[in-house]
Fold:
Amino acid sequence: MSEYEGPNLEGLVGQTVAMLVPVFDSKAVDVKIHAIEPSGLWVESQLMIERMFATIGRKSGAATPLFFLPFSSIAFVMASIALPSLSETMLTQ
Structure:
């Protein structure tokens, strides 16, 4: 039996995660990870798309835009795993 090693970015490709990108927003946004490169991630984000289109004066595009985020611009990534959640309430009972 192998020991659980936790999530890794490769395992999150195709999934939606919460990500804090301070140069974009002061709050975490939901992004779908499409690809990983050595220096960052290619992501899709409805909020980023809406803001980009508003900035350039468009309402939509012919295809879904992807954004490249260098790892240096990402403060954190939050994903979920299929394990029981640790709850302070449950731990103190």
